[in-house]
């Protein structure tokens, strides 16, 4: 039997939590894979980076927010088989960040209560993450 070998892609993502217990989601822009779906900020872990450094970098690039690796707490992770790769995605929670979130890459952003996340279509990998956020917040 031929086994289905896919590369594992490491992506680090973060639930930014505001003082009202809402989390930030961003809509993937046109032209990217999974365009139109809502996701947690983050991106691929680049060579030489820790996943925490990736989150700090991506939050700054995508939203203009500043945070520190020490402000990230691991919550859970996604492990999901996409067509051409297997996604492994740690999800951090961050309540300490500086600045006002502004979409820097043409994406729409929203602050949403965890129990409303299902109103926003997310990538299939994200579905199992939602109950962890509902429990936490
Ligand atoms: N950031 C993020 N990516 C997610 C989530 N759920 C999910 O399946 N993904 C997938 C979509 C992509 O295949 C991958 C993230 O890659 P990306 O293309 O956004 O990463 P990147 O910002 O480094 O992209 P680029 O520079 O190559 O354009 O992870 C999520 O909640 N947040």
From TrEMBL:
It catalyses: 8-oxo-dGTP + H2O = 8-oxo-dGMP + diphosphate + H(+); 8-oxo-GTP + H2O = 8-oxo-GMP + diphosphate + H(+). Its cofactor is Mg(2+). The keyword Electron transport does not apply. Residues 7-135 form the Nudix hydrolase domain. Keywords: DNA damage, DNA repair, DNA replication, Hydrolase, Magnesium, Metal-binding, Mutator protein. The keyword Coiled coil does not apply. Its EC number is 3.6.1.55. It comes from the Bacteria. SUPFAM superfamilies: Nudix. GO terms for molecular function: hydrolase activity. Belongs to the Nudix hydrolase family. This is 8-oxo-dGTP diphosphatase. The gene is nudG.
